[in-house]
Amino acid sequence: MDKNKELDELFDKVSKCNKCINLKNKSGTDCSLINIYKQKDFFKNIPSIWTDWYRRLDSKIMIIGQDWGPYSEMNKIYNKYIKKADEINWNNIIEEEKSLTKRMLTKYFLESAKQNKINIEDNFLENIYITNGILCARNGENYRGNNINLKKSSLNCKEFLKEQVNIVNPKIILPLGYYPLYELSQIYNFGIDKTLRENIDREIKIGNFVIIPIYHPAAQINREEQLKQYNKIWKYY
Known about the structure:
single chain, Uracil-DNA Glycosylase, subunit E, about 40% helix
């Protein structure tokens, strides 16, 4: 089956999921998320490296972040694009996305490739399939607040992450941080320790791909420690 059609079918399944719509944590804090896939024209019209799925389906590398962040931020990008919904505007909006995460990912890919004597283009990140372990968006305005149950929502989304892996069929999977790694461990039934630092030196081979845990590129981890992880990528690339 065509990969685009497979992804369409996956997102149709996601649109029917209500597991995190009324979610609360143990203390009763509202951790409900917004299912952006129920709005058929919305999720396909948010130009960002995190939502540019359809043009990256043949990537050898798959990056898995934690979650999208607030719905309000996605809505701003959507409204900016929908005023002029064409490929030029799509590409311009992605190019304007100067987030620290994007800049640091690009930096570490380029530096590690150079250290390994591998030539890649400056726009290498544009060809990588990038997604998040938690597919719904947060309420509110805060990226770092307690308005999300990371463990529960990661478990609720694991079947959708597994389907993305099956569709893309990457050679290398890079989970950014602990919870994407935890989600993968639940999908593929391998054990992990309780912190990312305890797992950071691992290379986990599953079938035809390898999982290389990496720190979030914007985390306060020094350059040398970050590059140790990215340097592992190129022996599998």
